[in-house]
Amino acid sequence: MSPRSVFLNVPYDKPFQPIFLAYVVGVIGYGLIPRASLEIQGSTHRINHIVELLHSCEFSIHDMSRIDVPRFNMPFELGLAYHHSLSLADKHSCFIFAGDYKGFEDRLSDLKGIDIQVHDNDIAKVFSRLCAAFVAQDLVPTVIDMKAVYELLTDSLPGVLENAGSDSLFHPMVFSELVFTARAFWNSRPVKTRSRQA
Amino acid sequence: MARRKSQPVVLTGRPATLEDIQRVFKLSNKTVARLTALVESTPGVRDSSEAVIRRHKQKALTAGS
User: Fold this and answer.
1) What's the rounded Cα separation, in Å, for the pair A19 and A124?
2) What domains are there in chain A, each with its CATH number?
3) Cα distance between residue B12 and residue B29, in whole Å
4) How far is B63 from chain A (nearest CA, A)?
5) pLDDT, average across residues B15-29
6) Which pLDDT tens digit goes with each residue over A3-39?
7) Which chain A residues are Cβ-neighbours of B8 within 8 angstroms?
8) Contact: B25, A134; criterion CB under 8 Å
9) Residues on chain A touching B18 (C-beta within 8 angstroms)
10) Phi, psi (5° rounding) for residue A196?
């Protein structure tokens, strides 16, 4: 059986980088592979490739922290994922996160009644909300472990950025290398497994 | 679909390995060797969980003082 992937639908802007890194660390802690549209570069019909990538993932995380500014990609991709989850019943799950709840109900009122994981733009709260979202996962990484891996990944960041000649995490080479590096750091920290009753 | 509070997600597949990630992102062996060296040279990577917890507690105390 292949490992499962999580499509990350987040704003690609510099102030958001620490939160993006937190999603990468947390998702990998659950044994999942984060994927993102930034992997798709210089392609015509970009949206088709995004849909293809989204459909290859069992989960998607949609961070709606920037819906107060005119950036429509994130709500659009959330719509695509939501429709995908409805079509496939239990084969795709989407989770909605946001920096704050203010104005959320007005701007995305169709989502009334759906759980929104609010993280207040705080790394520790992102980890905590990921724990809430993936509550029934077999692996049970703790927030302390997530913080530890986050610190290690932050320490190794200059080496990864330098090699890609980039100062941004939203670069395909940086992203793929971060995912690998984060997994390697997680491998150095044994994660508890939830015991299940037969 | 998006989850309500009463709908936990049950995951049963195996966790991703480094080999899976290398395959998914088409990383070369050279890149993998470089990243492995980077990981091994990062201070604190060999710390035990207890050492990490101690460090976080110490940080929390320092922040609170």
Assistant:
1) 10
2) 5-193 (3.40.50)
3) 30
4) 15
5) 94
6) 689 999 999 999 999 999 999 999 999 999 999 999 9
7) 135-136
8) no
9) 180, 183-184, 187
10) -115, 145
